[in-house]
Design brief:
The complex is a heterodimer of chains A (97) and B (551). Chain A is built from 2 helices and 5 strands. Chain A is α+β, with helices and mostly antiparallel strands. Chain B has 4 domains: 104 residues, Sulfite Reductase Hemoprotein, domain 2 (Alpha-Beta Complex), CATH 3.90.480; 151 residues, Sulfite Reductase Hemoprotein, domain 1, CATH 3.30.413.10; 93 residues, Alpha-Beta Complex (Sulfite Reductase Hemoprotein, domain 2), CATH 3.90.480; 125 residues, Sulfite Reductase Hemoprotein, domain 1. Chain B is 38% helix and 17% strand. In chain B, the strands form 4 sheets. Chain B has a 5-stranded antiparallel sheet. Chain B has a 5-stranded antiparallel sheet with strand order 3-14-15-12-11. The chains are: A alpha+beta (97), B alpha+beta (551). At the A-B interface, helix 2 of A face helix 1 and helix 14 of B. Bound molecules: iron/sulfur cluster (SF4).
Chain lengths: 97, 551
Amino acid sequence: MSEHIITANNLRDGRVVYLTRDEGWSNNPDKAWVAATPEEVARLSGMAGLAAAANVVVGAELIPVIKEAGHVRPARNRELIRALGPTVRTDLGNQAV
Amino acid sequence: MYAYDAYDHALVRERVNEFRGQVKRRLSGDLTEEEFRPLRLMNGLYLQLHAYMLRVAIPYGTLSSKQLTTLAHIARVYDKGYGHFTTRQNLQYNWPKLEDAPDILAELAAVEMHAIQTSGNTIRNVTADHFAGAAADEVEDPRPWAELIRQWSTLHPEFSFLPRKFKIAVTASPHDRAAVRFHDIGLILYNDPEKGRGFEVIAGGGMGRTPFVGPTIRKYLQPEHLLSYLEAILRIYNEWGRRDNIYKARIKILVHEFGMDKFRHAVEEEWQRIKDGPLQFAAEEEVRIREHFSPPAFEDVALSSEQDEKAMAENPDFAAWVKANIHPHKARGYAIATISLKPHGGIPGDATADQMETVADLGKLYSFDEIRVTHEQNLVLPHVRKADLFALWTILSHHGLASANAGLLTDIIACPGLDYCSLANARSIPLAQKIAARFDDLKRLHHIGPLKIKISGCINACGHHHAGHIGILGVDKKGEERYQLMLGGSGAEDATIGQITGPGFDEEGIVDAVETVVNTYLHRRSEGEEFLTAYRRLGPGPFKEALYGAR
Ligand code: SF4
């Protein structure tokens, strides 16, 4: 199966975040915990559910990614734009950090 | 302008306090997201691609300087220094924090604004002709009627859970600037030579997945029965509108499936039952509301001075701005000035906090403290003395607000699309920018003449692509952004749904396609013939041939 990560929005400020290997949340997909097997995917989904229940994030979702030159890149266009920020305002969103 | 009475103030303040409590409980975990989501949506707070988004209602597109200054202040303090004016005469903030939302709503309430019913299956913000109260061609100012509808529809207990959202637009001019035939209900106030002042009522128009030009349900309605008639329509819709399928839930589908005769019959029957009840509108009530909209104290000023002529002769840029952005006013010596939010390379409808403040100040200085928001994502100063136009233009120029393109090809409507919107299939804004860059020559723009391009990033049609002279719809084709081209639409009094030309294009291809269409028009137009007229005369044939070659 293709590789997946978990994305969500911070509850408090709405920022786009990714579930990390240390079970925290980062706005950098490179730091995301990448699941490659169905077992890992199930484990990540479980953790995302817990984080949502703990009111840290909202809208947690599993998304496919591509690993490229040492970077983790969301596979779908929509998720790529989410990861960076508006393509017409490169001073805003995670790309501005 | 309408000023809140004690009841309006209390209602909005209570709502802010209620929402403050709800946000607190959400943040502390007492409310789950599932429980909280409908509550935040009732207060206009969405979750979009990158962040929360707050949609603020601007009833019938009218703002005071103080209100616009507050919108600028909110953009600066709580958001990223800008706001986005939408095709529904609303303002959207793209980056508010959940924890700040109650404070933002409190700031809005202090200037008689709110975000109630900017989401959900309710009667949404009532829109109106953005030249209302100023246009030379109107019967009377339609905003008192829009305000009456606002009061009736705000928190109307019976219509809080309609099958789907519901949009009403009002105009009082034969030239429709409010796209009334593309609304769930459209109202045209006019003077009938025999019966006097009355409304033509349109029901079941709309865009989206299944576009319909709204048919007339009643050719003439006495104004005092406006609310009872609207209530009757809403009741029939609320009872019979489909709730099983979101794509078939709008009133347009009900009207279409029933057929207008059956639908009208049901409405009239209900109306007969309620028309002489409490919703009947007393003449004093109209007077009371109309007082809020009494025209400003226009001076009787000279028509146009030699000085203006000289300024235009010496400044071709000013002359171009006057030609495109100035419309006739009902008062002698006054003009309506459109402030284009479509600078070349800019984002349609976006205004920075500084720009909003500038326009607010100019509104105070030159337009009796009034500003309007148009569904075409521009701002308007409705009452400017002609003698002040040059001074106004000079200040606008210094703030990047003097684009002389109102109603021209680069005055493009574009929805937020995939740059912001979580429902989008494709981006709209970069396309608007690329088209604007391709036609970056003011002389060429003026040579082409009136031409409306409208772009939506998905089938929901927030960018009104069906009603564009040239309409563009973004689609997702196997993960790639593609664009469909439509020609011949109109949102005006000659409302028409555009026709798809054929296979879609990629991003570069669609910009070329727009140019091909424009060039075809330029080659084939007759003297003084505008794009839409030429398209209607020629039909799609020559355009298709130019786009796809002879088949
Ligand atoms: S038309 Fe679609 S993409 Fe554009 S704002 Fe509306 S829902 Fe979003």
